[in-house]
Design goal:
The complex is a heterodimer of chains A (277) and B (316). Chain A is globular and about 75 Å long. Chain A has helices spanning 6-22, 24-33, 37-42, 55-61, 69-100, 104-118, 122-134, 141-165, 170-177, 182-193, 195-211, 214-220, 228-238, 243-263, 265-275. Chain A is mostly helical and 277 residues long. Chain B is mainly α. In chain B, α4 packs parallel to α8. The chains are: A mainly alpha (277), B mainly alpha (316). At the A-B interface, α1, α2, α5, α6 and α7 of A face α2, α5, α6, α7 and α8 of B.
């Protein structure tokens, strides 16, 4: 039953044609990014360059001031990493306590986190911007990290709580009966066991932070600490139709995340399939 | 599994304790084993209370003021909302948002389901294909939109193909109707892989034996799909459609990159208007009113969706 038949082979071919059509934008992206400027007008937009060059990349990467793509890349890395650390540390602690406690406040607080997942962030951004401006956090990386950790905390708590609920308590009990303090139990027993959940949290939250444009534009736009999407937005805006340079920036912004994805694609797909539930 | 060693009566609401009923909750005996300390949760609680609850409540208050970001402000009742519904441009952005959200919901779910069905079993290269179809999901929507802006360019590859088959080139992003469809296509192109993955997870729970039994009993492909597959993946449909609707309602990046809201406001959405009114024009009160409208639409739709999917699962 449901064996591989000639009809299946046809189906496989059809899906591949669709896949290649779907991935066509990547072809244009690479081909155009490798074209020297004079070929932009002389060759067809879909033809490969006759004289491929990396000069677009070197030019885009050597941009200074607001157009410093490398600096923006650095800001994105720092902000994403710090946000993940904050979410993993505070999210796992909160979820652990909330999923292990038998008191009623735990259930109520957990529902508080769940409802916050549903609350859209757009409305809160206006007062947050005003508050951050008053205490001088607008345009700073730390302000951004606090914002992301707060925004994504409900997601992290939700993912960790689901994991801890299914984690047997036997190890924790054993350690506790042997005289380990709760802090030691968490650090030495729970923390090493929770790495699958940490992976999911890091991937989902990391992707959201890395790709975020809306709040980064509001809080960091025009500052010295712009992240990659914000820098890209302003830089591309100034390039008008120099598509080869625009695509060099776009490719540079895609490469880190694509490399990470191809390296850990199983975990990414699992995270999206199961993590969101 | 919930049994733990405790001194004195079991305190708590674990399922076994609640089912027993004879447990007194008033006596707060300290259990022998404590799992963590309650104050460990404080940093997370404080941040969520601030960033989600206090900020959202604050935004809801600003929505009824005429604040410009500096100095004093007055409460002006529903004036901001009257202004929204008197402004044809804002009505247009509301319509665009709804069109994009529902178009996005339908397109991603239909194509995502087809892909998931195609890649569920039998195909030899299904794992590789899944990785390829999912790839756009991890990319920045802004970066993806720039690639598509090039494809839609008047001198771009899309018009190149049209010219090749003998059709007139079109100004895709400068035509009010086409531009909105272009935004929708870019949104769907990027996110269909995510829906596919959610459906694949749902399809993995359908036992192959049931499908085989149905096939032996003479049920055709369509009847197996209708009476076995669809009922089993109903939870996935609910998740995917809720996620897509909410993501569609907050569309921002694609519009900013592809059209900037143009031509002549034809692709403005609520989120782009929130940004422009609040942070470009400094109409904080008015921007907050727009954000409140967007929030209410999202909440209403997600509640409606919850109710709709719950009713269906009870009927099944």
């Amino acid at each position: 039953m449901f064996r591989y038949s000639p009809a299946t082979a046809v189906r496989e071919g059809v899906v591949w044609v669709f896949a290649l059509l779907t991935l066509l934008p990547f072809y244009f992206l690479v081909v155009t990014a490798l074209k020297p400027s004079e070929e932009l007008l002389t060759t067809s937009t879909s033809a490969p360059p006759s004289r491929p060059t990396l000069e677009n990349f070197t030019e885009v990467l050597s941009g200074g001031g607001d157009n410093n793509i490398l600096l923006a890349l650095g800001h994105s890395v720092v902000i994403t990493a710090a946000s993940i650390v904050g979410l993993v540390a505070f999210g796992s602690l909160a979820a652990y306590v909330l999923s292990r406690t038998t008191r009623r406040w735990g259930t109520i607080t957990f529902y508080g986190f769940l409802i916050a997942i549903l609350l859209p962030t757009q409305l809160g951004l206006v007062p947050l911007y005003i508050g951050a401006r008053q205490i001088g956090l607008v345009g700073t990386m730390w302000g951004m990290v606090v914002l992301y950790v707060g925004t994504l905390m409900p997601l992290a708590v939700f993912l960790y709580a689901g994991f801890f609920r299914n984690l047997p308590r036997d190890y924790e009990e054993a350690a506790s009966l042997d005289g380990a303090s709760p802090g030691r139990v968490f650090l030495r027993v729970v923390f090493p066991l929770m790495s699958p959940a940490t992976g999911t949290v890091a991937i989902l939250a990391g992707l959201i932070v890395w790709n975020d444009f809306f709040s980064a534009l509001i809080f960091l736009g025009g500052s010295d600490n712009q992240t990659l999407p914000v820098s890209m937005y302003y830089y591309v805006g100034s390039l008008v139709s120099a598509w080869n340079k625009i695509f060099a920036i776009v490719l540079i912004s895609m490469v880190p995340i694509l490399a990470f994805y191809l390296f850990a694609q199983k975990k990414f797909i699992q995270g999206f399939a199961g993590g969101i539930k | 599994m919930t049994a733990t060693i405790r001194k004195g009566p079991v305190v708590g609401e674990g399922s076994s304790a609640a089912g027993g009923g004879a447990v007194s909750r008033s006596r707060r005996a300290r259990p022998l084993i404590t799992y963590g300390r309650w104050w460990w949760a404080l940093p997370a609680i404080a941040m969520v209370a601030l960033v989600h609850y206090a900020a959202t409540a604050g935004g809801a208050v600003y929505a009824f003021t005429d604040w410009t970001g500096i100095g004093d402000f007055d409460f002006i009742g529903l004036d901001n909302f009257r202004r929204i519904f008197d402004d044809p441009k804002l009505i247009g952005s509301l319509k665009n948002t709804l069109f994009l959200a529902f178009g996005f919901l339908v397109l991603t779910n239909v194509v995502g389901l087809c892909l998931a069905l195609a890649l569920n079993r039998t195909l030899k290269s299904r794992y590789l294909l899944r990785v390829l179809f999912f790839m756009p999901v991890v990319l920045s929507p802004l970066a993806v939109s720039y690639v598509w802006k090039f494809i839609f360019d008047f001198k771009g590859p899309l018009n190149g193909v049209l010219g090749w088959v003998g059709m007139e080139p079109r100004t895709w992003l400068a035509d009010p109707t086409l531009a909105l469809w272009a935004v929708l296509l870019v949104m769907a192109w990027q996110t269909t892989g995510m829906v596919m993955v959610i459906f694949l997870a749902g399809l993995a729970t359908v036992p192959i034996e049931i499908e085989e039994a149905a096939a032996i009993d003479g049920a055709g492909t369509w009847r197996r799909f209708r009476h076995i597959t669809i009922p089993s993946i109903r939870p996935s449909i609910a998740i995917a459609s809720t996620l897509m609707l909410i993501q569609g309602l907050r569309v921002f990046d694609q519009v900013m990159a592809l059209t900037g809201g143009g031509p002549a406001g034809a692709t403005e959405t609520l989120a782009t208007q929130v940004y422009k009114q609040t942070f470009a024009l400094s109409n904080f009160g008015f921007g907050a009113a727009l954000a409140l409208l967007l929030t209410l639409i999202m909440l209403v739709f997600s509640v409606l969706q919850q109710v709709a999917t719950r009713d269906r699962s009870q009927g099944a």
